[in-house]
Predict the 3D structure of the following.
Amino acid sequence: MRHRDTPGDTRCKLCFQEDSLFHRNWECVKLQTCREHLKPEQREEIKQMDPATFLQGWFPLPDLTFVFRAMLANLPDYFDCHVDLPSTTQTQDPMHYFTDGSCLRPKDRVARICSWGVVCTNKSDLWSFEAVASGLLPGRHQTVVRSELTAAAAALHAAAMRRHKFCIWTDSQRVFSLLRSLFDDPNRVWGARGPNHDLINAVAAEFREAAPYCRGVFKVASHQQIKPNMSPAERWCFSGNDAADKVAEQAFQSQPKLMECWKELTQQLDHRRSLRDGMHAMLVAIGVECLMNAQKKIQPKQPAAKQMLRPLDMTAWNLPLELPPAAKPYVVPETAAILQWIDGLHDSTKPVQRWSWWQLYLDAWLNVPNMGPWYHVNSKQWKGGRSQPPESFQRKARWFSQYLTKLSKACQVSLPLQHASPNGTAIAFWTTTLPIRAELSRTEALDSWFGRHMPCASRTSDLRKINM
């Protein structure tokens, strides 16, 4: 922060008044349009809040949120919410328990509240469903899955206490899968890292107590309308699920003080969120306006000068037909043919062109029989083309460029390399080039060969598509 304490102009760049966050947000006349969507009473209410709110846009939860969470924590557990039913005698036919959960404002993580309910068939009338247990979900973590698990635990607890044969019907796939898995491994214990492990372990514990009486667990579709064309079994299943759903919804009425607190909390949350959204929109609009104003004052940069090409250096880079002793490591069977090929690239009567290493290698490969050369790493020697292993076009071209570079250095010939865009249409990017003087038709022939493998190379990786 080397500029932290340096003196400077502290005035607003828009209206030239003393600048600050409060001035930008609420006072600057040049930014009035950014806050017009807020009503005057909304602006005043926000400015009466803490500085973290009216300066930075941080909106805390209403104080009533913590009262609401404390009331949720004090709700009774599922085993304290059973309805006293007359004791039932043991019958051959099992009793059927339907479980369900309900939720208000399910997408609101702060004000979400859930309930659960359990009903059971009457032993004398299977179409009559009696409420067994219901209540609100205790604890801060309110989800539909937890309410469904609580309902299942309550049903198992009731069946174990009444000691009669029973079946469980649920519309929750999570509960259905859990109960079915407990048939195979009733002693399983879930670790604390998994979600809802407390209720899952409670369901498992209740199942172990009720397992001797359980005759089955069944999945039923939720919220189905009963239609005349349904079978009696379908109507019965959906009627039982609907009865459990109604009992779960009626459970909200069992805690009037809590529901009154919840209703007031939702009103405060909706009001505060409308203030939050309005102020956040204002802050974004102010930021955009200030950025646009700053960009207007920035002087446009001068366009960078284009890279200038050096004049073509047509100093003959021919290699002598009789190589010096220093070039002996680079002599391969086709070296003489390569030297003649180089000599053919310097016809003073032909137009000047630039070729890349890939074009040079391809032209040599098309004109020199048994074109090599390649470098044997293990023996550290250059070999002829007859023994060359199968390699990619890029690898062979790289060998060729390394070979010519080392051979020219041994012959004390300086290659006039230049970074430029090669002639022709095959290579459409800047790369290392060498000047040549040859017929234009020769370049067109290379373009035609490249075109059979790729339309145009805009980068080096495009040349990987070439197979030889």
Strands lie at 95-104, 113-121, 129-136, 166-170, 214-219, 352-356, 374-376, 381-383, 418-420, 431-437. The CA atoms of residues 196 and 377 lie 62 Å apart. DSSP finds 13 helices and ten strands in the chain. The longest strand covers residues 95-104.
